[in-house]
Amino acid sequence: MPSIDFWYEFASSYSYPAVMRIAPLAEDAGVTVNWRPFLLGPIFANHGWADSPFNLYPSKGRYMWRDLERICEKEGLPLSLPPVSFPQNGLKAARIARALRDDGLTPDFTRAVFKANFVEKKCISLDNVLAEILQGLGLDAEAVLAKAETDLNKAHLRADTDEAMRLDIFGAPSFTVGDELFWGNDRLEDAIEWAVKRG
Amino acid sequence: MPSIDFWYEFASSYSYPAVMRIAPLAEDAGVTVNWRPFLLGPIFANHGWADSPFNLYPSKGRYMWRDLERICEKEGLPLSLPPVSFPQNGLKAARIARALRDDGLTPDFTRAVFKANFVEKKCISLDNVLAEILQGLGLDAEAVLAKAETDLNKAHLRADTDEAMRLDIFGAPSFTVGDELFWGNDRLEDAIEWAVKRG
């Protein structure tokens, strides 16, 4: 079965529509999705950026929020702007998403966190917000939070971010099929088509 | 009749597919296109960039060329990579394109310059390359080159670039319908749709 790696960052605004759209599109095309949370911070630091480029370059930032509004309207996705802050610190969420991988719960957890950020205006770096999301999925929040903070799980997430760098990923969301890289929510359909034809 | 302003820069790689695609798409939709050559240099300087971001951030640059290859393949557009240099200095070409506006020849001239850059690997800042393109359009090259370099025409192009800044344009190609801004070749269809519905 063809497959695609879906690289996303919990702080990333354009990752929101991709997170909400990818599962049904991939299923219709018969493509398996590997959900790959990673951290953009170390990659942006390599570019010399200490903040999101949408904050560093205000014109780009203003455009991004308006563009995201239009995209969400088109896709029928709810969106509440502005978010509680931008970018939010997605480190804990990313660690939890990584810890839930073997249980197959990464997609459900990810969608719930993006909804909390971009619809419910919650602060996704807070333990109580993350615990509530985990409980909503029927999980033992305390146990998952503890697993997320183990050295082994942290090392997994670091290795995934290193892999993203090796794949020359510079932003989120990104999609890879082997070494073929697609960047941006608006390349999701192309990436799935690529996986079907050549994956 | 609804209309759209099409902002492009002769040095810009993603302006190439937009330049080649916009006329038939707009015609089919019954939308008039105002071709607005402008200069990205002053806008990038405001961002603190002394070069194209595709050169400043090598990962983004590598991705852009591969993405452009895929786009051109999909659209059936010829593309010869790498170009003779990137970004090329598009100042003279932009002045000529502005000077030809009242004669309605800006679109034909623009398409010929982008073909020279991205298909024929020519240096589009050279007078003899530009003169050959003008002659190919049946024009008196010497007269057009002289008109392009008049103070009045230079002032027109500066005013157009100032207008782009007021519209919060930060990259090329961009499309505006009133104050509504769309950025990137992949927003061309959305911009035309916007012009039809609300222009």
From TrEMBL, chains A, B:
It comes from the Bacteria. Its EC number is 5.99.1.4. It catalyses: 2-hydroxychromene-2-carboxylate = (3E)-4-(2-hydroxyphenyl)-2-oxobut-3-enoate. InterPro entries: DSBA-like_thioredoxin_dom, GST_Kappa/NadH, HCCAis_GSTk, NahD-like, Thioredoxin-like_sf. The keyword Transcription does not apply. Residues 4-189 form the DSBA-like thioredoxin domain. The keyword Isomerase applies. Keywords: Isomerase. Signal peptide: none annotated. CDD domains: DsbA_HCCA_Iso. Gene3D superfamilies: Glutaredoxin. GO terms for molecular function: isomerase activity. It is an enzyme of class 5 (isomerase). Belongs to the GST superfamily. NadH family. This is 2-hydroxychromene-2-carboxylate isomerase. It comes from Methyloligella solikamskensis.
